[in-house]
Amino acid sequence: MIVKKMPILQGFPDFETVKKLSNSVSFDCGNAPVFYDIETTGLSRYSTFLYLIGAVMQENNKWFLHQWMAEKEDEEPEILCEFFNFLTSASSTIQYNGRRFDQPYLEARYKKHNLPSPFGNLPVLDLYQELKPCKDLLKLERMKQPDLEEFLGLNSRLHCDGGQCIRLYKSYIKNPKAEPEQTILGHNQEDLLGLGSIFSMLGYRVLMEGNYQPLKAETDEDRMILSFRLPAPVPKPVSKKGTDFYITVRDQEGALLVTSTDQKIRQYYRDYKAYDYIPGEDTAMPRQLSQYMDKSLRIPATPETCYTWFPCSEAFLNNPEKQAQYLKSTLPCLLSF
Hints:
Layout: E1 2-7, H1 15-24, E2 33-40, E3 50-59, E4 62-69, H2 76-87, E5 92-95, H3 98-112, E6 124-126, H4 127-131, H5 145-151, H6 162-174, H7 178-198, H8 202-209, E7 213-219, E8 223-229, E9 238-241, E10 245-250, E11 253-259, E12 264-268, E13 275-278, E14 283-286, H9 287-290, E15 299-300, E16 307-311, H10 314-317, H11 320-336
């Protein structure tokens, strides 16, 4: 088994940033979060095997990258044991698509070798699951990790992709050579460093969570502009335009422009399945109330029709608490259209 450990000198978020971004999506990473990524000979957790685990953990206020690589198939249990011992001091794990692949795969391999699982109740932060709702906002066609790295302008990968690594590894175990070994380890290292880079994209996820600090609200005859501050900055400016709204975010501040009608604006609600839309009144109504109306007067609400109108009054423009409530209700809906 090949074991490696090296300090990460740059390109990985500092611990305070990891803590802050984790908290921004209501996740407590604790004092010893572990970023990890695995390399396997295929997708099936029952007919393929694990040949490499890479992990990043803090030590003496510095990040260190650890790797355990099997030189042959029967070393898989050794890798699993090493990782079990490594996670004994972890407070949480962070991966990309880890809930659907990495952790279930590892759980199955630990079970196959009659080894105890290291996960137990260890909290899990899956960046794929967290960032998936941001796909449209980021204008991405796919949500694979390299796609997010490309979005951030990171085009510095030097090693092969995961599929090529499998073929390279199968060749390597038949004829071990230094060059393929470095390429395989290098690919895993790039995955881990990329994981650290895209972690900053949790700043976009905050937009869906509703943790905003209103800064200023202005209105004129046919629009309102509401600026706000986020608990964490976004790594790259983004914007989204709709029929009657425009959203823009840069660094740690954003602005929402909405069209008003007769000094009134729409407030949207996320749980649209609990509402009916009343076309004659151009408003949504909770089904607890609309159920008593004639069926011809109501239709099931959609995300786009689940709104009510309220006056954009001085009382609203001068009340940050009411503005925060409006943003928390409306902004996630607009972003999901």
